[in-house]
Write a structure and sequence with these properties.
60% helix, single chain, 597 residues, mainly alpha
Length: 597
């Protein structure tokens, strides 16, 4: 088996050339690039790069290719070197911390500065780069939002191209950031590290110095700005509760011997196993935020290696091509052979829930863009990520065969439809008080049919029709509204019966209550029938061959339940209109049955 992990590097030779420039010792005697307070002299750097002129995005000299970026990287070599020298001489962090506060994650900054001076492992430099690139990107997004009063572009390269940032930070600093981490044709530090390509020795410590100095220098440019920080994710418990459950054996990640053997013996770790061992050390020492930041790129790298082997793709970091990323790996086309023999369906469902689903954690995306408060990264999350990574290294020792997605849209539809079935059945069990004199007239045939109908157990999430999500989203909305309708009626009748026992209803109110009791059976019948249709559509995959007819039914039914939800509200005076909705649905259901016999 061809194994990319045995090669010396996954960096393109031209990218490696740029990194070697950063490592070189500068022969320049010009010390004017760094001011006495340790921040950049942007005027001197602008003169170094552009002479006495300036540069704009539309200027012909604005670099677009590697060959155009290379001379600028060479020009900046003494600036990079001086940045490192300044930080190397730093003896007191106190003066520097205020300059970095705008990055957020304040409780981690002293640790980063300490680790810079006293690295605790071979991966410390990479860990610090991971932290600083994510924090800097998030902080720049805050600057943009403060100025533009709207959310920033999701990608860093697009953010750096905005006029808003250029106006407040200046063209020189933006150009510097693009050279450092804003273009795939240049150093591209953020993407190279966050996508897991480099070995520890390929990232020089001077990159940490540069990130610290540029962050401190940018803080001076926004001193007069009342920075608005966007809210960060502070809790993943809703997701963790659903994922962190039996029968998955998460306790296996606490078996040091098994984990070590898995990492050492896997064909996918190679020289990158040093990261995996440090990840596990962070986990054992409850250093969870560093554990999470370090394992995320490595999980993606192992996935990329498996994907490359399965599909015979080159997985190195290239200059002029998109990387094979987590998202592209999960774009299942007919020629994607990832499922053939390399991974189980359960593994892909598990990884999809953690990393890809728009309804799930999207943990890698959020952490890498600085959108997570690192204080919320806990041991439970780490055990899930460790188990996911170890499953990729050895699916037999860390099995995920039976796992089904809990956060794919189809899974959420299953959950919503099952909930709607449960609530309708509960509604149809409701009884009037014995002294009331009237009873609900439930349709027992519909109730029995609904009780017997069950959704198929297997939730399919790959190789799906492109039109399927549109249908599924409507099914979920219908099911959720049915739950709301049932709750509305239960609350309303509980209150009205309470008033009856307290002898509060006036004669007119009593007549209204009698009419409501008489009509709820009809409404319950329609709600039960709708849920039966939802189950049938899912089980029989009605939309695969008759999409337009199925979508028409869903849209019409959605309108019906939206109106029912409004009329069933306890504050509504239009509850009798619910009967009109029921009559309309009889026609809708009849049309559906005639087309899907």
């Amino acid at each position: 088996m061809e194994n990319n992990s045995k090669s010396e590097t996954l960096l393109h030779p031209k990218i490696d050339e740029l990194y070697k420039i950063i490592k070189c010792i500068s022969q320049s005697n010009n010390l004017n690039y760094i001011k006495q307070n340790g921040t950049f002299n942007w005027q001197s750097i602008a003169e170094l790069l552009f002479g006495n002129g300036n540069i704009t995005k539309d200027d012909p000299i604005y670099p677009k290719t590697y060959d155009e970026y290379l001379p600028y990287v060479q020009l900046l070599q003494p600036v990079f070197q001086q940045s490192h020298s300044v930080l190397e001489r730093l003896t007191d962090n106190t003066d520097w911390l205020p300059k970095l506060q705008w990055l957020g994650q304040q409780s981690r900054l002293p640790y980063i500065l300490h680790e810079y001076k006293n690295p605790s492992s071979e991966t410390t430099v990479v860990e610090n780069v991971l932290f600083l690139t994510a924090a800097l990107e998030y902080a720049l997004g805050n600057v943009y939002q403060t100025i533009a009063k709207k959310s920033p572009p999701h990608l860093l390269r697009d953010l750096l191209d905005t006029k808003e940032l250029r106006d407040v930070l200046g063209t020189c600093s933006i150009f510097f950031l693009k050279i450092l981490m804003g273009s795939a044709e240049s150093i591209n530090l953020r993407n190279i590290v966050w996508h897991g390509f480099p070995l520890p020795h390929e990232i020089p410590p001077s990159f940490v110095s540069i990130l610290l100095v540029v962050s401190a220098s940018l803080s001076e440019l926004i001193e007069d700005l009342s920075l608005v920080s966007r809210p960060q994710v502070k809790n993943f418990s809703r997701f963790l509760t659903k994922i962190h459950s039996p029968p998955i054996g998460y306790a296996l990640v606490d078996n040091y011997l098994l984990v070590t053997q898995t990492v050492d013996n896997s064909p996918w770790t190679g020289e990158w196993k040093i990261y995996w061992k440090q990840v596990y050390q962070h986990y054992e020492q409850s250093n969870y935020w560093r554990c999470v930041m370090l394992i995320l790129p490595q999980i993606e790298l192992v996935l990329r290696k498996i994907y490359g082997e399965a599909n015979k793709f080159d997985i190195t970091a290239k200059l002029n091509e998109y990387y094979i990323t987590m998202n592209s790996i999960f774009e299942f086309s007919e020629d994607n052979r990832l499922l053939d023999s390399y991974m189980t369906k359960g593994t892909l469902h598990f990884l999809y829930d953690i990393f890809i689903s728009p309804f799930g954690m999207r943990i890698r995306d959020k952490v890498s863009h600085g959108e997570v408060d690192l204080n919320c990264l806990d041991g439970k999350l780490c055990s899930i990520l460790l188990y996911a990574g170890l499953n990729l290294l050895n699916k037999n020792e860390f099995p995920l065969d039976g796992y089904q997605s809990k956060f794919h849209l189809n899974s959420l539809v299953y959950e919503a439809v099952n909930a709607s079935k449960r609530f309708v059945l509960e509604l149809m069990k409701m009884r009037t008080p014995s002294s009331f004199g009237l009873e609900f007239k439930w349709n027992w045939e519909v109730m029995e049919t609904l009780q017997e109908l069950v959704l198929t157990e297997c939730v399919e999430i790959f190789h799906r029709s492109k039109k399927e999500p549109e249908i599924m989203m409507n099914l979920m909305k219908i099911a959720q509204l049915i739950v709301q309708i049932c709750q509305n009626y239960q609350i309303s009748f509980e209150e009205r019966f309470g008033m009856f026992f307290r002898h509060e209803p006036r004669s007119r109110a009593r007549k209204t209550l009698d009419k409501m009791v008489e009509t709820l059976g009809v409404i319950g019948e329609i709600l039960g029938s709708i849920v039966c249709y939802l189950i049938r559509i899912i089980n029989e995959r009605c939309f695969e061959n008759r999409f337009d007819d199925c979508q028409k039914f869903c849209k019409q039914t959605l309108t019906i339940v939206e109106n029912l939800a409004r009329y069933s509200d306890r504050e509504s005076n239009e509850w009798l209109k619910a009967l009109d909705c029921c009559n309309k649905f009889h026609k809708i259901g009849s049309d559906f049955n005639s087309k899907f016999k």
